[in-house]
Structures are given as C-alpha cells and as structure tokens.
Amino acid sequence: MLKTSDLISSCQNDWDAYTRHRFVCELGNGTLPEGAFRHYLQQDYLFLTHFARAYALAIYKCDNFADMRYPLTSLQGTLDTEITLHIDFCKKWGLTETDMMAIPEATGTVAYTRLVLDAGQSGSLVELYAAMAPCAIGYADIGQWLINKSDTVFDGNPYREWIDMYGNDEMQEAGNNCAAQLDAMMRDIPKDSAAANRIKKIFRDAVRMEIAFWEQGYQDA
C-alpha cells in the first residue's frame, strides 16, 4: 500500500528544501524583505484561483456522489475561507483584489499551476491529488514548525498573522485530511509499481514547484 509518507520520503531532500526554505525561515524571524512577501501574496492569489479550478476538476473526475464530497468541501473551503482570509490579509499590505487580478502571473506560478491542472486533465484522479497534496500538507507542516520553533519571533513580526493562519488548528486539520484522503485513494497501489512511480514523480515535481514559488519572491520582487 502506497502512503503519503512514502511520497515524501521518496523526495525527502526536496521536501526539506521546500518546508524549511529560507523564505519560510525569514518569515519566522521577521527578516523577510517586504517586497518578496508582497510578491508572494500577489502570486499566491493567482495560484489559489487555479487551485480552485483543480478542485472543481477533481469533482468532475469522481465516479460517485460520495467521492465528490471531499473535493467539494475543499473547494468550498478555498472559496469561502482561504481566499477570503487571503484578500483580507492582502488589504493590510495595501493590495486590493482588483490589484491582484490585474497582476501578470510569474513564470513559477504558471509552471506550478499548469503542472497541477495537466496532472488532472491528462491523468487519473489520484494523480491530480498527488499534484495538489504538497500545498495543503506542506503549508500545514510549515505552520506547525514555525509555531513550535524556538527562534520564531512573534512580538513585532510583520508576518505573524501568516504564521498564525497556517499554524492554526483548521489548517492542521486540512493538511491531515488531505494526507488521509490521498492515503485512501492509494490503498490498492503497490509501493514499487509503475503507477506508484508515476505518482511519486508527480508529487516530487509539485514539491519542486513549491521551492520555485518561494524563490521567485526574491527574484521578481
């Protein structure tokens, strides 16, 4: 049986480079350049637009109503909670939703979101979930790590709300649910099969896109 933990361990170095990236560390200690963070916020809004489409695609690819409920819940959470929080958060940084809608997608944003959508359009439902999983699982991991990290700065940190948002119980539950759902979908896939290798590659590619997403904050700001 293939598990989410197997996907992570198959690209452990990339996973660590993503979840412990310097962008994340500088968020935690409050030293991240403001321009890099603003660029990230702008591109993350565009990213979430495509992610919502990916959840809609997942609903389309489900075979029955029971299976549709999980991506539907995730889509509703993205539209009703995460994007709303994102818009409210961006307002505090002087960014309106109209501003963000008018911003061109950066190269890393295009590459990542199209990888996810292509996995869903050309592959199976489980392959789509494998492409989406690094985001939900990784951000929950990052949020929890920063909340518990001994040198995380809370007082006076301009990014504290971001840390609190991704470290809260709701985001932790979302990450755990994503991993559990993916585990359930992969329960009949042998670990060393060709199908498992395809899923591992998709997952690894998405993790590498997450690294590039952090990096572009420095390069394009």
UniProtKB/TrEMBL annotation:
It catalyses: 4-amino-5-aminomethyl-2-methylpyrimidine + H2O = 4-amino-5-hydroxymethyl-2-methylpyrimidine + NH4(+); thiamine + H2O = 5-(2-hydroxyethyl)-4-methylthiazole + 4-amino-5-hydroxymethyl-2-methylpyrimidine + H(+). The keyword Hydrolase applies. Pfam families: TENA_THI-4 (PF03070). Residues 12-218 form the Thiaminase-2/PQQC domain. Keywords: Hydrolase, Thiamine biosynthesis. Its EC number is 3.5.99.2. Pathway: Cofactor biosynthesis; thiamine diphosphate biosynthesis. SUPFAM superfamilies: Heme oxygenase-like. InterPro entries: Haem_Oase-like_multi-hlx, Thiaminase-2/PQQC, Thiaminase_II, Thiamine_Salvage_TenA. It comes from the Bacteria. PANTHER family: BIFUNCTIONAL TH2 PROTEIN, SI:CH1073-67J19.1-RELATED. Catalyzes an amino-pyrimidine hydrolysis reaction at the C5' of the pyrimidine moiety of thiamine compounds, a reaction that is part of a thiamine salvage pathway. Belongs to the TenA family. This is Aminopyrimidine aminohydrolase. It comes from Parendozoicomonas callyspongiae.
